[in-house]
Every structure is written in structure tokens, then in C-alpha cells.
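User: Please predict the structure of the protein below. I'd like the answer in C-alpha cell form so I can feed it into my own downstream comparison script.

Assistant: Understood. Taking the following sequence of 43 residues as input:
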Amino acid sequence: MIGVSQAKVLAFFPKQQNKSYTIQPIEILAIRFIIKETSHYYI
């Protein structure tokens, strides 16, 4: 499950691979949405 969600996050936000890149609030919300969709344990 974790691997699948990580792959989706990297697919949507490839810039996260760059350490100098700062995550924007809208991307944090999108990541939370992806986690919701891929796992029923996180709300």
C-alpha cells in the first residue's frame, strides 16, 4: 500500500525528488487526498 501511494505521489509531484523544492500547501492537500484514496486507515 505504501509503495503504491508513494508511486502516485511521485507521479503527481516529480519535483519532490529535488531537495531544494518546497512543498506547497495545495500539494499537501493533494497528497492527503491520495493517501485517503489508497488507504482506508488514514482519515
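That's the full C-alpha cell string. The chain has one domain: 2-38.
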